[in-house]
Write a structure and sequence with these properties.
This protein is of the alpha+beta class. Helices cover 16% and strands 33% of the residues. The termini are close together.
Length: 783
Amino acid sequence: MKQALNFSWQFMPDFKDDYLSSFPDNAENIDIPHSNVSIPMHYFDEQCYQRISTYQKCFDVDEPVGDQKVYLHFGGFMVKAKIYLNGHDLGEHVSTYLPVQIDITNVVKQQDNRLIVVLDSNEDPDIPPFGHVIDYLTYGGIYREVSLQISAVQHLKHLHVHANHQGEITISYDVENAEMSPYAVSFELSYQGNIVDVFKQTKHKIDNILPWSIDHPHLYQLRAMLTSDLVETSAVVRFGFRTAIFKDSGFYLNDEKIKLIGLNRHQAYAHVGYAMPRSMQVDDALILKNTLGVNVVRTSHYPQSEHFLNACDELGLLVVQEFPGWQHIGQTPDWKNHVLDFTKRMILATYNHPSIILHGVRINESQDDHDLYSKTNAIAHELDPFRQTGGVRNFKKSELLEDVYTYNDFLHHGGNPGLENPKKVLPRKAPYLVTECNGHMFPTKAFDPERIRVEHAHRHLAVIDSAFKYPNISGVIGWCMNDYHTHRDFGSGDHICYHGVLDMFRNPKMAYASYASQSDDRIVFEVLSTMNIGEQPEGLLGTVTVLSNVDSVKMYKNDHYVAEFHPDIKQYPHLKHAPFKIDEYIGDAIYQEKDLPKKAIKILKKALNEATIKGLSHVSLKTMLSIGLLMVRYRISYSRLVGYWEKYVSNWGQKTLVYRFDGIKNGQVVCSKTVAPLLDMTLKANTDQLHFKVSDTYDVQKVVLRYVDVHETVAQLSSLPVTLEVQGPFVVLGPKVQSLHGGQLSVYIKTTSRSDGKGSITITPNEGKPIIVELNSETVIEK
Ligand code: GAL
């Protein structure tokens, strides 16, 4: 049985010996997940969370303990903690990113237990990932859920199921107190609550299974039942039947070759660092799968929340996971022992997730270390003989002790090939996966100039294109999903690495569509411009990019058809959905000019278009000459020529210029985007109601704000302030006044009560009408 222990803790931001005997009355009441400080948006001191703090939790055990075993389970705390229960010292435990489970059978009481956690969130150089610099913050606090696990005195543990897409199942487990009494174990397999098979052997073949795949992530349950003279008990795990294998020729899921296209994820959030409950962890998986349309995520650079992994299992999102570390290998035996311990703990904790296709068992971008990595690989292969290992490096021809050569390829700097030829990187023939690209090569903010944001999108496209060029590249995982907090040695000087295709609030930058447009799950149609010449150097619109998975794009100016555009397969020959390059702005309306013959208009049109794209001072000599001749031949005065320019290009002082782009698929217009001068802006929220589910702990939901015009174009340069007022048993995470970032903001709202509740949030922009979103929370019993 599991008893959640997340509500009503007391927290002191420091530690004094006295707290062990009596906790101060002025302690703050908090719930878990918890961040030991509220994290400012940016420009803060990264020492702020590096402190020793103390937590107290008083609790009764709900179920009669009797002669059962009781364990205290922490999902994750940063970094290490001394733990005391009822005055007994339970020792020091290191978590960082991994669960800690402590046997408290001998010290727990049925009632009036007092748990003290003295949490040290300082970066300890003896524990990975610490000891040198790291490009991300690790925050502090008990940031994942806590529970009691109550089990029969003899019980199953480490119940692991491997199942392939042919229905072959292999089960392993350990038995606690195996020596106490002879026992028998049998298994019951079910799918969606219906029993499919009952059997006793640990290797078994099931007929007619539904395989787990990206499109159909079928999940099964295995109940293992242990019977002895002492107990009758069972354990349940969820898994999927699938075969995931990296070969020299690429990646295969259930014998089907799949190109992996994905993003790296940091589990950091604004205001609270790592401390987000299930809903927001699931939200990230949904964003990756549905908004970004990727098929793989790398949990860079550490094991991530079980809620996130569960959601990946449910959604069919593949996962490349990693243990904690970044570039540095500590040379003390302690440091290296932690690496081995973390490898083991990561695999034991995550074994049953069908979404995980690779265990990363090398410190991200570290040097070769034959001894250390021989050991991590051996541990991984012994504990999980069915999954391959990878080891992320950033240099070529490194010693390959893993099954897959996983490589961070930062070759692309715009204008050159997207990726290295794997032949140049691999020390020998081997499966090959690109685990990072872009990132620091081109930091991009949601509010950067348009040309930077467009270039960012193109750089991601270039790399994806290259991944398709080389059939033996299993895939590419871009750096990265979202902007993240970092140490002072990295980022833009404000403690943020603006490397995401989403901002820190998970709102899209243009490059989100470089990924989204490659999927066919939904129509994606993004015009990467507000068509304002003043935003561009020299006032030149140049070519405009449309990212979409439609067949063609038709452009209209003030409802006059200009041209139809087709995917730019010249620049992107390997992409499934190459972008559209809008490079024709004049259109056929110019042929309505009566005072020139058609032949002359054709020359004029070509010259005007060239000037629109390159600028008047950069048109070719040939074009200049052709215009000169035209002017002489047809007696076109300079001012008449300027008139054509104003009419067909600049539109200065004339009727508002409105562009419309229609997306065509199978001959039909399936989507449309109008781009007009940004007037009449309104703040809009994604919803007028939010539903919260309070269960094992509090819930967090978000209101997504966008400052848009009537055509839903986001005012990407807006940092409009909004005042946030909440009514009812809810609270806003972060300050009461927040600003939009790049015209967008996610406001995170948290429940504060364990019972059902109703309320609202009023969001008042500095300009414009307030928005009211209703909040409803419901208490849900966890199964
Ligand atoms: C890589 C590193 C990532 C991140 C990225 C930025 O070298 O593995 O953690 O720092 O660079 O591009």
